[in-house]
Amino acid sequence: MDTLLHILQVLAFWALALALLAWPLWPAWREWRHPTDLNPLPVVRHHSGDARSFAQHFGRWMHEQAEGPLRAATDAGANGQVLPFGRQRFRLLGAPAIWLNEQAGLVIDDGLVSLLSMYLPERTVCRWEVGSHGNLTLGPQVRVRAAVSGGDLQIGRSAQIQRWADAQGQAQAQDSAVIEGRLTSARAIHLGHGVRFSRLSAPRISVGTTVVPIVVPHLPQAWQPDQGEAMDASGETWRYPAALRLPAGAVVSHKLVVDGDLHIGAGARIEGDVKVQGTLTTDEGVVFLGAVVATEVARLGPHACAAGPVVGEDQVQLGLGVKVGSADQVTTVTGNHVALAQGVLVHGSVWARSGGWTETP
Fold this sequence. Notes:
The protein has a 33-stranded mixed beta sheet that branches. It has helices at about 1-20, 25-35, 55-75, 95-100, and strands at about 80-85, 90, 105-110, 110-115, 120, 125-130, 135-140, 145-150, 155, 160-165, 170-175, 180, 180-185, 190, 195-205, 220, 230, 235-240, 245, 250, 255-260, 260-265, 270, 275, 280, 285-290, 290-295, 295-300, 305, 310-320, 325, 330-340, 345-360. By secondary structure, it is an alpha/beta fold.
């Protein structure tokens, strides 16, 4: 009896030890038996990312708590009342033009809010948010923590936004302005030359002056992969196992995956998604009807058009007059670095994780 009990104890010990050793491997075994990596990731809409969340929070405070005192200050033309918002203090400007008095180089320790349109003179420094129910203009070299405008927002030459800025109307950043956080607009964003940014979001994002598209003199022609090299794995996707150059005017009617660099000639048309394990470059006038993804650099040449998202994990470079998305189909340009040339037009968002800029002609 003692021998049987001893054997049972040893077996129980080893069973427990094996269970403890196998426990960390359980998720891997379950994934092997029932793969889930092909399924779409569930994204809760509330957490899918709202570029205007900070501005909306501040705007609610302006409308729900500050609007009454602001109206009283505006009716009296008074500028002295201060209202708390969290740890911050905001000066209610009933007559902002009188208080600011167009004096250059002001340093303001309080935030500023007004029902009226507001102009911050050259080299003004405001350490907190600036909010206006009307238009808001930041003069040259002005520096503010954040800004929200119920109308149009003008960011002057070499002005700096340290956190975020939002406009219910149009937002314009003049040459050499710096937006360290996000710039959003309910209508449109227009950027001058040499503007630095991190995140842009608007139905229409444009750079510089309008550029007239060129006419690409190449007749479209259907392109077929070399049957000895390309693999048609799914019937809808062509996979090319090395670097590839598509000729001018080529028309690709399938999804395309290239295990190397891809160069696309002028006037080509890609009707499916494109994924490049390397660098993607194009000549002028190339049209993409799907998504464009490159694991290194995505460089779209002059007057290229992309209907879907453009992703370059290292860098995205949009050339002269490139258009991404449409008024009916907003999309995203994403890269570690993003460079936008003159005449670029994006409908949607531009996210540059380590910084973006508009090029100087």
